[in-house]
């Protein structure tokens, strides 16, 4: 591989910083009321978001400058995969929080192993698929091992339980198989099996079935399962075209629980209106477009798959958040990348984007042939 490196994709870099800046401002706006009553400090979440953003920027800069090809090291991948699986097992023995075990506490902080799993699985699958070359078209040799490893990650995460992250991981794995050249007949079969599996997981868990019922008619249980969806629609609807102005949201006054997290997009719609919502969607669309362009411009198969996986991850996660907040999808706990309040989610998202920026330095655009 030619080691010549050019500059990072500047439009992508600027887009990331703009989304991060919007996220910091909206976290402050969405959380200030709750923070005043709970912590007597309106900047409680803002300070933490700034700290995590600092860690995230550091991770992004490091990953943008350490040659991504070093991630292809077999020993590094083996250790990373093993450590991730251990963390995914350990988290199952943690005390539940809101009915789920997703965090491992470290002092006053915590890490979410599923966030590590997203990036680690992308690295592993990109390496695995790129090494197999044309043999990936064989179901037994190419597809089955990928399904086995992805299945282990998915099974451990669904036990937390965390179906939304499971969906995101499997969708990303599917995209990598598609980009790797797996025949359409296998992909179609996998899609059918995946949809059937989703139906079964929903059917066997009463709370998931209730969420689907609430999605179909949230006003059938306005104070229960339909509550968040209804309050989110109130926020989006009251925002109108230009919004009620930054900081003036009414829904953050204990109507939308922890508005700085999964439903921050509703607060954006209320305060910044249709214009603000459109700008956010366009920024994510631009980020995804730049990511796919980087994937297509990278002549190294590993780098191309890595860029595809990271871009797909951002695309799927942001799309799910948009759909949930606007009630086009049942309520599920998915944060909006770079915007929602978060610790490990923000840091690992930015680390992933750092890898994407690194790959952009090795594209045809920068003279690498």
From TrEMBL:
Its main location: membrane. Keywords: Cell cycle, Cell division, Cell membrane, Cell shape, Cell wall biogenesis/degradation, Glycosyltransferase, Membrane, Peptidoglycan synthesis, Transferase, Transmembrane, Transmembrane helix. One of its GO terms (cellular component) is cell division site. It is a multi-pass membrane protein. It is an enzyme of class 2 (transferase). Its EC number is 2.4.99.28. The chain crosses the membrane at residues 12-30, 50-69, 76-97, 103-126, 138-159, 165-182, 189-209, 263-290, 302-326, 338-359. GO terms for molecular function: lipid-linked peptidoglycan transporter activity; peptidoglycan glycosyltransferase activity. It holds the Pfam family FTSW_RODA_SPOVE. Pathway: Cell wall biogenesis; peptidoglycan biosynthesis. It is found in: Cell membrane. One of its GO terms (biological process) is peptidoglycan biosynthetic process. It catalyses: [GlcNAc-(1->4)-Mur2Ac(oyl-L-Ala-gamma-D-Glu-L-Lys-D-Ala-D-Ala)](n)-di-trans,octa-cis-undecaprenyl diphosphate + beta-D-GlcNAc-(1->4)-Mur2Ac(oyl-L-Ala-gamma-D-Glu-L-Lys-D-Ala-D-Ala)-di-trans,octa-cis-undecaprenyl diphosphate = [GlcNAc-(1->4)-Mur2Ac(oyl-L-Ala-gamma-D-Glu-L-Lys-D-Ala-D-Ala)](n+1)-di-trans,octa-cis-undecaprenyl diphosphate + di-trans,octa-cis-undecaprenyl diphosphate + H(+). Peptidoglycan polymerase that is essential for cell division. Belongs to the SEDS family. FtsW subfamily. This is Probable peptidoglycan glycosyltransferase FtsW. It comes from Fonticella tunisiensis. The lineage of its organism: Bacteria, Bacillati, Bacillota, Clostridia, Eubacteriales.
């Amino acid at each position: 591989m030619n080691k010549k490196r050019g500059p990072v994709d500047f439009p992508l870099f600027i887009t990331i910083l703009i989304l991060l800046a919007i996220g910091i401002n909206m976290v402050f706006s969405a959380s200030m009321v709750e923070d005043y009553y709970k912590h007597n400090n309106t900047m409680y979440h803002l300070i933490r978001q700034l700290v995590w953003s600092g860690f995230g920027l550091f991770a992004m800069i490091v990953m943008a400058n350490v040659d991504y090809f070093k991630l292809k090291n077999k020993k590094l991948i083996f250790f990373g995969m093993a450590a991730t699986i251990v963390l995914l097992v350990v988290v199952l023995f943690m005390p539940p929080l809101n009915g789920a075990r997703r965090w491992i506490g470290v002092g006053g902080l915590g890490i979410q192993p599923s966030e590590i799993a997203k990036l680690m699985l992308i690295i592993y699958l990109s390496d695995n698929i790129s090494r197999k070359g044309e043999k990936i078209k064989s179901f037994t040799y190419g597809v089955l091992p990928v399904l086995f490893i992805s299945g282990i990650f998915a099974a451990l995460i669904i036990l937390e339980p965390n179906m939304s992250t499971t969906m995101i991981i499997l969708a990303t794995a599917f995209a990598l198989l598609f980009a790797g050249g797996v025949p359409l007949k296998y992909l179609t079969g996998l899609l059918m099996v995946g949809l059937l599996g989703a139906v079964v997981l929903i059917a066997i868990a009463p709370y998931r079935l209730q969420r689907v019922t609430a999605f179909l008619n949230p006003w059938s249980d306005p104070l229960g399962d339909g509550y968040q969806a209804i309050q989110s629609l109130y926020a989006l609807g009251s925002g109108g075209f230009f919004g009620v102005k930054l900081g003036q949201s009414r829904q953050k006054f204990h109507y939308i629980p922890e508005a700085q997290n999964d439903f921050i997009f509703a607060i954006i719609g209320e305060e910044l209106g249709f214009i603000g919502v459109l700008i956010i969607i366009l920024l994510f669309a631009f980020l995804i477009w730049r990511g796919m362009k980087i994937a297509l411009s990278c002549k190294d198969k590993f780098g191309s798959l890595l860029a595809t996986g990271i871009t797909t991850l951002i695309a799927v996660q942001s799309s799910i958040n948009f759909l949930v907040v606007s009630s086009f999808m049942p309520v599920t706990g998915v944060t909006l990348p770079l915007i929602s309040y978060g610790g490990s989610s923000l840091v690992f998202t930015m680390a992933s984007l750092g890898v994407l920026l690194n790959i952009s330095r090795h594209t045809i655009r920068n003279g690498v042939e």
